[in-house]
Amino acid sequence: MTESVRNTYSVCPVCLRRLPAAIVKRRRDYFLEKVCPEHGGFSTVVWRGDHPRFELWGDYTPPVESEDMRPDCPNDCGLCPGHLQKTCCVVVEVTERCNVACPFCFAWSKQASEDPPVAQLAEWFRRLVEGGNTFVQLSGGEPTVREDLPEIIAAAQAAGCENIQLNTNGVRIAEEGNYMKALADAGLSNVFLQFDGTDDGIYEKLRGRRLFAEKKAAIEACSVARVGVTLVPTVVPGVNDQNIGDMTDFGFLHSPAVRGIHFQPVSYFGRCPQPHGDQDRITLPEVLQALERQTGGKVRISDFAPSGCEHPRCGFHADFLVMPEAVVRMTPRTETCSCSRDDGKAHLRKRSHIARRWRRTDPGGTEECPPGGGCPDMDAFLHRIQSRAFTLTAMAFQDAYTMDIERLRRCSLHVYRNGRTIPFCARYLTPAIP
Amino acid sequence: MADEDRIWKCAKCDRRLEKRKTVFSYLGHTVAHQVYACPGCGNVFIPEELAEGRMSEIEQQMEDK
Question: Peptide bond preceding A74: is omega within 30 degrees of 0, i.e. cis?
Fold first, then answer.
């Protein structure tokens, strides 16, 4: 029996035209369905199972709008007045080039293109900061292929960027001694490291080569340079979904150098194999179930809250203290995390969270809190939090099959392009090859 | 003069407060700290600098406020 759960809008995967859509429930799974007058009907799984429950995941209600009030989303992006969330972070593409030819690449990196000069990037940073956008992510392609990356970071800092994150595969960081120090000295705040698992077979399938040694070396280089690193796996069913527990244990073991793991269930945009069907997708509840099951209950589904700044179904988050004797949820889960208060400041709270959790803030030295015991004073307790905090988060990016405009309008991760800031999933939206 | 440097007396017991190791429980964690307490009734005095300093920082770290 099919039950209609929610009406929304989506796009045709072939021609990308905007279409009315519905989220329907069939048995225990939820599907986004739409019909294109030219290309026919499409149905794609967006949520599997009832644990946690789709209907109880966050309490967001979209605004009531008449048809003529509704923005023409995702067209006219940049941001339009109908966008329903402010910018938390801005992705700045500093190159289209890359040093690895991954079969899965959201940005469809290519070798034959011209990089924007540092002076132009410096002007972009100034404009972003003037507009209140002080948290930037340097992305690409692979930013470390640029010889002047330290100058770019310095330009971002000089322009007033408060947080400068590098999104990288880590290969150059691993291979070149002192490179990470040069980036840190230039003002880099934290690193998002592409990290798909603890087995080289996974990297061969997803990235085309063995890379686990390079990932470990990159983490060590970040640790020496005292730059926080967050591991970012693209989770693909049948490739690394059974490695989620091992990835998490690996991350815990490398705390405080590793600040957290940011899971990204695979989305089919950019350069990627064409999905054959729902068996090629893994949804947020399944990642949560895998976390609980594969860590032997060290973390539990009940520890996690929905995305606060974005739409609830965009992801999940939880903070833990990782200690040798136990992993402890940092605060009791509340039904509505403070970050999701709709007071127009959620994007600022998320920025504070990023600065607090993803940067390396521990003072170094030996912790004074005894294992399993209380801390001798508040300074020692603060030291423990800074040294042992670990985030487990996820972002379920959307592709042309799964695009839910209700979610897109709440996006706070925006890509800067030609003077406009565009929600991430709209920027990289890619038509399917018919 | 900071609260820490003043001499404090318990209004109920009329006794000078003494620095004592006091155990605080917060969201499932325990942390001790030397604070002024009354040797008679045990009431604890939290100075403004501690409340707005380390305690506020702990609250921010733990509760993402």
Answer: yes
Query: Along the 65 residues of chain B, how does pLDDT read in single tens digits?
Result: 777 678 889 999 999 999 999 988 887 788 889 999 999 999 999 989 899 998 998 888 887 65
Say which amino acid occupies A284. Answer: L
Q: Please list every residue in chain A whose beta carbon sits closer than 8 Å to the beta carbon of residue B63.
A: 331, 338
Collect all residues of chain B within an 8 Å Cβ-Cβ radius of residue A349: 64
Residues of chain B positioned with their CB less than 8 A from the CB of A347 = none
List domains and CATH numbers for chain A. Answer: 2-71 (no CATH), 89-333+344-360+379-416 (3.20.20.70)
Q: Which of B27, B33, B57 sits opposite A332 (nearest CB)?
A: B27
CB contact under 8 A, A377 and B34: yes
CA distance B35 to chain A (A): 10
* Residue B19 contacts A where some CB pair is shorter than 8 Å: no
Is the pTM for the entire model greater than 0.80? yes
What does the pLDDT look like over A291-350, one tens digit per residue? 999 999 999 999 999 998 899 999 999 999 998 778 888 865 654 455 556 788 889 888
Q: What is the CATH number of the domain that holds B19?
A: 3.10.20
Look at chain B and report how many structural domains it folds into: 1
Burial per residue of B24-55, b for 16 or more beta-carbon CB atoms within 10 angstroms, e otherwise = beeeebebbbebbbbeeeeeeeebeebeeebb
